[in-house]
Amino acid sequence: MSTPVAADAQNKVAAIIGGGVIGGGWVARFLLHGWRVQVYDQDLSAKNKIKAVLENARASLPKLCADAMPAEGELIFCDSIALAVTGAIWIQESVPERLDIKQTVFDEIETSASTDAIIGSSTSGFMPSELKSGRKHPDRFFVAHPFNPVYLLPLVELVPGEQVNADKLNHAQNILEAIGMKPLHVRAEMPAHIADRFLEAVWREALWMIKEDQATTQEIDDAIRYGFGLRWAQMGLFETYRIAGGEAGMAHFIAQFGPCLEWPWTKLMDVPELTDELVEKIASQSDAQSGQHSIRELERIRDNNLVDILCAQKNRNWGAGELLNKHDKRLAELKAAGNQQSAAE
Amino acid sequence: MSTPVAADAQNKVAAIIGGGVIGGGWVARFLLHGWRVQVYDQDLSAKNKIKAVLENARASLPKLCADAMPAEGELIFCDSIALAVTGAIWIQESVPERLDIKQTVFDEIETSASTDAIIGSSTSGFMPSELKSGRKHPDRFFVAHPFNPVYLLPLVELVPGEQVNADKLNHAQNILEAIGMKPLHVRAEMPAHIADRFLEAVWREALWMIKEDQATTQEIDDAIRYGFGLRWAQMGLFETYRIAGGEAGMAHFIAQFGPCLEWPWTKLMDVPELTDELVEKIASQSDAQSGQHSIRELERIRDNNLVDILCAQKNRNWGAGELLNKHDKRLAELKAAGNQQSAAE
C-alpha cells in the first residue's frame, strides 16, 4: 500500500473553477482531506460563498470520521484559470450550465493544465460527448456530477462517455475515493445521467400536484420523509421492492406492481407550464413550511441530520456507512504512511 | 388529557381483514400498542405470514420507544369477517387490489360492524369514491394507505374523499396517532394518492434504464442511497431545494431548474412494455445485487437500519424523530392514566 499512497500524498493539488455552492463543496472535500486547493472564480463574491460552505463543512464532515482528519490543505484564490490549474492533478469545473461558458473555460484549462490532470465537470445537464467535443485530450474529461451538500453526500456520478480510457477512469475513481466519495461509474451517456432523471420525474409530479391544489409543499415533503424516503436512504428502489416481493422474488413483485404503469395517469406524462402564478404558489407554500428558519439554519439542520443518519449506517456497516468505514481505514493508512515517511526523512 | 385517554383505553379493538405483509404490519402496530386484534383471512397461510411479520416487529418497533411499550394485546384469528369486526373501533381492509373483492368484503363488514367503527382500506390503487360507492354509511370509509414495513414507517395516507365528515376524520387521525403513525390527510382524491405517484414516476424511469442497458438495479440503488435518498429521509423534496436556492429563495431555484423540464427527454413520457425479457433482466440483476441475503435477512437489515435512522432523527427531534418523541410522551401519559385508574379501582 505504501508506494501509491506516498505518490498520491506528494501531489495533492486540486483546481476548482467556479466557486458557488457546488464549487465550494468541492473545495471543502479536497481541503479537509489535506489537499492544496487553487480556486478561480471571476465573481468576487465567490470568496464569501466558499467561506460559508467551508464553515458548514468543518462543522460536519469531521464528525463522519473515526479519527482526526488530515491537517487542512492550503486554500489559494487565483486570478486566472491558468494559475489555478498549474500543478493540479484534479481540475473541477462548476461554472453555470451554459455550454458556451463551459467550452471557454475548458479552452483555458487545456492551455495550462498538465496533460496528466483529470478534468471533471459538475454538470447535471450536459453529456460527456458535448463537453469533449473539440478537445485535444478528450480522454481526461469526465462528467463528475456531485450532490449537494458535496462535503457530506458521498455520491458522484462519474461519466466518461462512449470512449473510455480505463487508466484515466481508474485514476479518477481513486482520487474521488481518496476524498471520501462514492464514484458511481455511469456506463451510458444519457441526458441527466442517472439520479437527476429520478429527481426530474418526481419534481414534475410535484409541480402538477401543487398546480392542481392536490397537495402543498409541506404535504409532499411529509409524504416522502415519513415514508419511502426513510427506505431509500439505505437501500434504494430495487432492494426495497425485492423485500416487498417476498420469497416469490422480484418477478412476482413486478407482476403485481407493473400493470399499474399502464393505467391512464396522463398527468404523469405532461409537463406543467411554469407560469409566474405557479412559481409564486410554490414559493409562498415553501415560505409557510420553512420560512421560520433562515437558509443558514436549514443548512445546519440538514447537515446535522445527514451526519446522524450516516453515522447510524456506519454503526451497521451498511450502504454509505460501509463506505465511510472503508474511508476511515484509508485515512488511517495514509496517516501511518506519513508517519513512516517522516521517520525516514 | 385523562378523559379521552381513558375512553380510548376502554375499547382498543381492531379488526384486520386480509393478513398478508401489509395486513400483518397493521396487526403488529395495533397489537404492540396493547390493542386486541381480531384477524380474518380466508387463506390458511395467513397465520404464518402474520407470525413472521410480528417477529420482525417485536425485534424492532420497541427500539423506537423510550420506555417499555404497553403489554401486547390479544391476537385472535376469526373464522368470518362478521366475527372479526365485532366490537372493533378500527377495521382495516388489506385484501388483494381488485375492486370486486374489496366490495364484497365491505358488504360483509357493513353487515356486522358497529356504525361508529372507522373502516380503513390499505389500497394504493383505488380512490375513496370507488370504495364508498353504494355504501350505507360512506362517512366512515377512508383510504388509509400505509408503507411497508407498516410497523416501522410512520406514514399513512388518510384520504376521506370529497365528502369529509370532520368528526370521523379527527377520530381516524387520533387512532392512527395512538399507534404511533403519521396520518397525512390527503385532501384531494386522485389516482395513487401522493407518495405512490412519486414511486411510479421513479419506477418508470428505472425500467427504461434497465431495458436500455443504461444502468443495473445495483447502480440505480446506489445512485439513490449514496445521494438524494439521504436528503429525502429527513427533509423531502421542497425543503431540500429551498436550501439549494440559497437566500434568493425558491423562486430563484425554480427559475434555474425549471426550464430543464421542457427538454425533450421523451423517455420520461412513455411507459416501457413489461416483456418477459425485461422482467427476467430485472430479476437476475436483483439476484446478482442482493441474492446473497435471504428475504428474511434483508428484512432484518432494513428494519435495523430504519431503527437507527429513525433514532438518529429522534435525537435531533426532527421529522419522523419529532413524531416519535411525541409518541413517547403519549405512551407515558397512557401509562400514568392506567396506573391512576388501577389505583382508583
Reading off the top of the CATH hierarchy, the class of the largest domain in chain A is best stated as: Alpha Beta
CATH superfamily annotation of the largest domain in chain A: NAD(P)-binding Rossmann-like Domain
In terms of quaternary structure, the protein is homodimer
Give the ordered list of helices and strands of chain A: HEHEHEHEHEHEEHEHHHHHHH
Return the average pLDDT of chain A rounded to an integer.
Answer: 89
CATH topology of the largest domain in chain A: Rossmann fold
Which parts of chain A are unreliable, with pLDDT below 50 for 5 consecutive residues or more? 1-9
Helix content bin of chain A: 40-55%
Q: How many β strands of chain A by DSSP? A: 8
Beta-strand proportion of chain A: 5-15%
Query: Treating each run of at least 4 consecutive H or I residues as one helix, how many helices of chain A?
Result: 14
The greatest interface here is: A-B, 111 and 111 residues
* Strand order within the widest beta sheet of chain A: 3-2-1-4-5-6-7-8
Return the structural class of chain A. Answer: alpha/beta
Explain what you see.
Two copies of one chain form a homodimer. Chain A is an alpha/beta fold and 345 residues long. The first copy, chain A, folds into two domains: 2-193, NAD(P)-binding Rossmann-like Domain (Rossmann fold, 3-Layer(aba) Sandwich), CATH 3.40.50; 195-292, N-(1-d-carboxylethyl)-l-norvaline Dehydrogenase, domain 2 (Orthogonal Bundle). In chain A, 54% of the residues lie in helices and 10% in strands. Chain A contains 14 helices and eight strands. In chain A, strands 3-2-1-4-5-6-7-8 form an eight-stranded mixed sheet, with helices on both faces. The longest helix of chain A is centred in the C-terminal third of the chain and has 25 residues, at 320-344. Mean pLDDT of chain A is 89; it is low at 1-9. At the A-B interface, helix 8, helix 9, helix 10, helix 11 and helix 12 of A face helix 8, helix 9, helix 10, helix 11 and helix 12 of B.
